[in-house]
Structure formats: C-alpha cells, structure tokens
Amino acid sequence: MTLLEELNWVATHVAPYELPPVCPWCSAGHMQVIEETPDPNFGALGVSSRVLRCDAPTCGKLTEA
Question: How far apart are CA 6 and CA 64, in angstroms?
Fold first, then answer.
C-alpha cells in the first residue's frame, strides 16, 4: 500500500466521525458548508474559500472561512 492509498484509507475511515464546528454566535448549532470556491490568491495551491451557515433554526448566521 502506497502512502497516498494509506492516507485515503485513513481519511475515509475518520471523516464520518468528525463533527462540524460549533456556531461561535449561538453555541447551539453547527456550521455547515454552503459554498466552496478556490481562493483568488492561493487557489493554485489547493486553498479554498468557504461560506458557512449555522444550522440552528433560531440563528442561521453566515461566515466565511
């Protein structure tokens, strides 16, 4: 098994157990990715810009990460 195959195996087995980050405003909901685009400056290096939204019905705030 190559290193890349091993990393892919670990990522597929760990990812289902990772929780999205908690909302910094309400601390009740989790931040969900609603849009992801390549970063205008560092997109060629694999960096992306994400827009996140809180999934709590009473909050729903947006942020960029």
Answer: 31
In this structure, what token pair is assigned to residue 32?
């969900």
pLDDT tens for residues 37-65? 998 888 888 888 999 999 999 999 999 87
- 3-state DSSP call for residue 34? strand
**What strands, in cross-sheet order, belong to the sheet with 48-54?**
31-38, 48-54, 62-64
Strands, E assignment, 1-65: 31-38, 48-54, 62-64
Rounded CA separation 51/63 (Å): 6
For residue 31, give the nearest of 40, 42, 18, 16 by alpha carbon. 18
Cα separation, 40 vs 15, whole angstroms: 27
In this prediction the pTM is: 0.64
